[in-house]
């Protein structure tokens, strides 16, 4: 009897151990199952988030730039073997604007980074487009940017197409908005003289590279620096320029910038030193131009030298 009880007790212990083992196995399996579900759910969520982010980026890139033709001027002429247009274009993008001129092509196959030869032909004949504020790069940190572009053409068709890479095509009606090319011609300057001096004064032009205290200074697109060049033919010793300003016909005055300013064209400012025969000096005037629009003023350049309290007044034009 005692042996039988011991066997029964041993059997119950074995059953308990088997039950505990099965229970532990079930717990481990269940834990792995739920961990696996959580891991799968997390991976799926991360994948969905990455795919969503990727699609968002692709959609943003697909949007690209919004490009609009604001207005334009056509310059048909009999002077050159090509005509041209000056167009104003608006670029819009949430991340600023950076567009290459090489990616803008006319329907005649001319890319706008290859127009220097046309502009050189114009300038050699004293026709200048600087007054039209034409840009040589399209770069801005702003979300909306307007600029003027020079577009040469030879077609006899009534329209011209501009392709902006894969972004957009712009159509220009060449039968409208005619302008007179003679308005772009740079006339000769004038001589002023007295018993003390004889000075040649050029007409105003938009300066190229501007320097302040010898360092290059970037000029905002909303501003233009107009320059008069003055060449001294003869002058009394020790004579200096005391004051200089430009006065429009409407009475608006622009004071010449101080002696800190020079340019690539005029390396000497007329305020800096005693004037010497044979030297050419520059006078610089800052003009605000809203939306980079061209500026055109009729008026007079007023000069006062150290030998007088009276202004010498010269008819001159900003354009």
Detailed description of the structure:
Strands 9, 10, 11, 14 and 18 form a 5-stranded antiparallel sheet that branches. Strands 16-15-19-20 form a 4-stranded antiparallel sheet, with no helix packed on it. The model is unreliable at 1-7 and 47-63 (pLDDT under 50). It has 2 domains: 66-182, Sandwich (Immunoglobulin-like); 187-318, Immunoglobulin-like. Helix content is 22%, strand content 38%. It contains 2 helices and 20 strands. Strand 1 (66-75) and strand 2 (83-92) form a beta hairpin. It is α+β, with helices and mostly antiparallel strands and 319 residues long. The longest helix has 62 residues, at 2-63.
What attributes characterize this protein structure?
single chain; 319 residues; alpha+beta; Immunoglobulin-like; 5-stranded antiparallel β-sheet; 2 helices; 20 strands; 22% helix; elongated
Could you tell me the mean pLDDT?
A: 80
Q: Uncertain regions: pLDDT < 50 for 5+ in a row? A: 1-7, 47-63
Number of domains: 2
| CATH architecture annotation name of the largest domain | Sandwich
For the biggest sheet, the summary is: 5 strands, antiparallel
Overall 3D shape = elongated
Look at the structure and give the CATH class of the largest domain: Mainly Beta
The secondary-structure element order is HEEEEHEEEEEEEEEEEEEEEE
Give the oligomeric state of the chains in this entry, treating copies of one chain as homo and distinct chains as hetero. Answer: single chain
Fraction of helical residues: 10-25%
Radius of gyration equals 38 Å
CATH topology assignment of the largest domain: Immunoglobulin-like
